[in-house]
Amino acid sequence: CLAHPDRPPSPVNVTVTQLKANSATVSWDVPEGDVVIGYAILQQRQDGQMQRFIREVNTTNRACVLWDLAEDADYIIQVQSIGLYGESQASKRVHFRTLKETDRLPSNSSNQGDITMEGLDKDRQLQTGEIIIIVAVLLMWAAVIALFCRQYDIIKDNDSNNNKEKTKPSSEHSTPERPSGGLLRSKKKSPSVNIIEVAPAWGCARSQLPSHACRAWPCPSR
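The chain above was modelled as a monomer; its predicted structure follows.
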């Protein structure tokens, strides 16, 4: 059938970037001066096992992310522009092949425009940061508990020592000992009385009796 004159022309410069094992990004250009309100993408595996049709309107995007692709598989895509009066003819067929899980991305590839993948990477980074924060908080709590237990043991030991000092007998605080081991005790000296017998001149010369006894008895010396 003949194409409507008001339909937009086919997209140009259709390229596939951001190749991964299960995804890829397709982009294209639209000639200037044409009103385009959406796009349509025909995606199919080269072996014919799967075919997908993607259609989006009311958008000015010139790129689309293809998801749920098979690993290490060949694909063919075609892009159409959607205008006010219909769709354009399909672009040239573009062939690409997804990567293996073990393959790395090419050095010239970038993740710009891949919003969903960037969001996944950010979520992973957030999860890693949350785990690090949780581990740091747990370590801080463990250090605080260990410090508290140590201070509690010190206070407990001090209290026990104070109680032992209070319970010592009062004899330990009594009279100090001499260096030789004896106790210092105050001894009271008993008064000593010395009796001295004095014989007067007029008493008995040979007798040991006192003078008043000589008076009572005759003294042979007189």
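The chain has two helices and eight strands.
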